[in-house]
Amino acid sequence: MPVKEKKEKMDASTEDRIKAAARTVFTRKGYHATKIRDIAAEADINLSLVNYYFRSKEKLFQFVMAEVIDKLLNTVAGVLNNEQLSLQQQVEQVADQYITMLLANPDFPLFMVNEIFSGSDELLKGERKNAIFHSHFFKQLAALQKQGKLSIQPLHLLMNIIGFVVMPFLARPLLERQKIVKGGEFKILMEERKKLIPIWIKGMIK
């Protein structure tokens, strides 16, 4: 194998190890408690290599979260544009997949809020906006509104779904610090919420 090709392969392998380790440590400890040395130890590589590839914990966190954004929005867009699914099935799948992703990436809601208030349009860049706001899901809602079966603007329904899903994760640190939610109770509540959200949304449609 040529030296250049071998180096590129090693670089890709090292980056993948660092990213995998970062995902693990950020999920386990949270962003603020995580140190670069924790990620290096998890990846079983030299601390200087993490700094070489990603420069800082913040940049590495942004990189990992960007991958989460891609995965989440691509999945959600796929559900919202699946013409084989009923409106109720779409809501069920979005709630289920969104909550599953947030349980695996507990720092994502805070990252998402920070991105929005920093002035970044990353969350809805390119085709993402059309894939969601011009989706089959929105066309179904517009049809219901025209038929008089939906008395609210369709955007309210999407905002309600997002609020129902995201708000508990933003409140989680406070709930856990105050011992309102203990141990594994939060995960149990979120699994219940996967089933409750579609019921609540259905109640908003005649």
Automatic annotation (TrEMBL):
Pfam families: TetR_N. GO terms for molecular function: DNA-binding transcription factor activity; transcription cis-regulatory region binding. It comes from the Bacteria. Residues 12-72 form the HTH tetR-type domain. The keyword Transcription applies. Keywords: DNA-binding, Transcription, Transcription regulation. PANTHER family: HTH-TYPE TRANSCRIPTIONAL REGULATOR BETI, HTH-TYPE TRANSCRIPTIONAL REGULATOR RUTR. This is TetR/AcrR family transcriptional regulator. The lineage of its organism: Bacteria, Pseudomonadati, Bacteroidota, Chitinophagia, Chitinophagales.
